Amino acid sequence: MTLHTLMTNYQQRVDTKLDLYLPSTKIHPHRLHEAMRYSIFNGGKRIRPLLVYLTGKALNVEETSLDAPSCAVELIHAYSLVHDDLPAMDDDDLRRGKPSCHKAFDEATAILAGDALQSLAFDVLSHNSKMIKTLAVAIGSRGMVGGQAIDIAAIGQSLNIAELENMHIHKTGALIRASVKMGALASQTIDENLLNKLDHYAKCIGLAFQIKDDILDIEANTETLGKTQGSDFANDKVTYPSLLGLNGAKQMATELIEDAINSLNELDHKADPLRWMANYILNRNY
Questions:
Q1: What is the structure's pLDDT at 219?
Q2: How far apart are CA 77 and CA 52, in angstroms?
Q3: What is the pLDDT of residue 237?
């Protein structure tokens, strides 16, 4: 089975489950529930849920045990994008080629929709305290939200490569690492050594993912990206290409992906989709 087939299958699976978890637009308050669904079902690639499924399957976990964490990470991801696009944050009018939530609805509704998506993620995970802890730490002040705070404070400032890496380990990488970890935690037999190696894999692909985003912000166009091209430069943000040059950034991303794949050496062919996913992150064009 190819990665494309797996991605299609799991994207459909997680969307079906998300549809069941999300409140119907017929339920009051209607506009809030419309905004929540708008933000979820707007063409996302579902990379983070895929990482949950692929990690779990590499460890022989049944798909039914992976549905809840897969939905939870996508709910969190959607909430983070809704808030990132707000005028007080990245101030972006486009998301995945469509008007951002605050443009399609209004700013207050977008804030509340993000809040509600975050809350729903923990409701979905309420059966598993280890996963709740993993996700909570990953998205809080020591993770994704902390990374966003560092990002905002860094606008117009000079950062070195270590400081930039630290920011993105939190802002982008923390949720990717949580996705892999929750897929692993669904296994009843996971040991600390393998958990650490999977976490290293996730750390590497998370950084590579951000570097590739920085590269695409330069090389791709708005239509391909689904968001405003050149927004990093326009917002005076420090990026990997701005510090390393375009070729240097590409080389760093390649080395990170090689490191990620090497960290999976203890796993057999069932982990091949994780290896394919690493290369997909490196070679994607949007």
A1: 87
A2: 13
A3: 78
The partner residues of 94 in beta bridges, in order of sequence, read 99
Which pair of tokens denotes residue 149?
């705070």
Alpha helices in 22-105 (DSSP H): 30-40, 47-58, 67-84, 101-104
Token digits of residue 38 = 């708008």
If one counts the domains in the chain, the total is: 1
Selection from 186, 177, 176, 179 nearest residue 57 by Cα: 186
Q: Is-contact 201 69, C-beta < 8 A?
A: no
Tell me the residue ranges of DSSP E strands in the chain: 94-95, 98-99
Residue with tokens 């007080």: 88
CATH code, domain with 25: 1.10.600.10
Task: For strands 94-95 and 98-99, give the pairing.
Answer: antiparallel
Other beta carbons less than 10 A from residue 129's beta carbon: 9
Asked if 285 and 220 touch (Cβ cutoff 8 Å), the reply is: yes
pLDDT digits over 114-131, tens only?
999 999 999 999 999 999
Instruction: Supply the pLDDT for residue 224.
Output: 56
DSSP letter at 270 equals: G
Note whether 259 and 269 are within 8 A (CB): no
Residue pair 27/94 in contact (Cβ under 8 Å)? The answer is: no
Q: How many CB atoms lie within 10 A of CB 247?
A: 9
**Contact predicate 215/242, CB 8 Å:** no
CA dihedral 67, 115, 171, 59 (to 10 degrees): -10
Instruction: Give me the domain span that covers residue 92.
Output: 3-283
- What is the Cα–Cα distance from 232 to 92, expressed in whole angstroms? 11
Percent of the chain with pLDDT over 70: 94
